[in-house]
Task: inverse folding
DNA sequence: TCCGTTGGTTTCCAATGGAGACCAGGTGCT
DNA sequence: AGCACCTGGTCTCCATTGGAAACCAACGGA
């Protein structure tokens, strides 16, 4: 019966123009899965500062593998969030830049990152408390 | 040399109080990986509307497996974003609720979801354009 | 000549995610 | 009485994913 209490959520393909991420088969769900991603977030944030080339991104985003970087960049390009331009120089140089559509998402991502960076102490405290109380039953490495 | 051009980003453990998600070994990176997650996002959004029980969440969040639901809920509980309360009723009932810390993150997540639900048409158009232009080299199923 | 740099792709292996079985223990339905 | 089903999970199995590293072509510099 609780389902009915959610008034504003349709079934994705309804009379409303917007999708519904709570529906598994809605395209917005797949979109959410893409943008709610570690590497996508970091790439978009970086490119929002300035356009950058492949190896620049790789250096900037510590720990990303070449595979995930090229893969994620291709997804972002396909989704129209990032543009890719090849300059046929000496060793071919490829520059990535954020698109207006991508830029329109950055504010939200930035807010999420800001939250993570500022609220980390509270989260760490919660983790410590959790691990102390239920430490025996939930060890770090089971 | 480009690294130096990013003035505001430290090496996570610096004089600044905040972390740096761009550093692979920074705890905020792990935190980002948790909150930038499909299921975490949907769970927090749902619990922000009202507290809910396990199977309620499972019904509400279409397509989530029991394993991922319980796993994600435990992570969120450990991070202090969600609280878990067991009521020893008839069949034991477990209620999950969002904490103030979790609620402080929801606005950003909500913005991300809103972006996905409203900008989906533009993304779909970009995908169609991409698939048309480079359709032969990047077929849907390779 | 050999290394490094460009931007990737490919290969291999470990970790993750999903489907579904299984669990306890009580309750309603027949 | 017996059976299915509710609660909230866990466990096992398999497919997909992610990461590390090798490989690639073409060119520049030592």
Result:
């Amino acid at each position: 019966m609780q389902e009915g209490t959610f008034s504003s959520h349709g079934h994705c393909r309804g009379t409303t123009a917007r999708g519904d991420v709570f529906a598994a088969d809605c395209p917005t769900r797949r979109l959410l899965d893409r943008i709610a991603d570690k590497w996508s977030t970091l790439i978009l944030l970086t490119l929002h500062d300035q356009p950058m080339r492949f190896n620049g991104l790789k250096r900037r985003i510590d720990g990303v593998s070449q595979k995930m970087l090229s893969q994620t960049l291709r997804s972002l390009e396909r989704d129209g969030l990032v543009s890719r331009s090849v300059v046929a120089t000496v060793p071919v140089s490829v520059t990535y830049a954020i698109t207006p559509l991508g830029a329109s998402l950055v504010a939200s991502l930035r807010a999420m990152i800001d939250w993570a960076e500022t609220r980390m102490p509270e989260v760490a405290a919660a983790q410590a408390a959790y691990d102390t109380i239920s430490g025996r039953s939930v060890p770090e490495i089971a």
Q: What stands out?
A: Helices of chain A lie at 27-35, 38-49, 54-60, 66-78, 100-133. Chain A touches chain B through 62 residues (CB under 8 Å). The two ends of chain A are 39 Å apart (CA to CA). The longest helix of chain A spans residues 100-133.
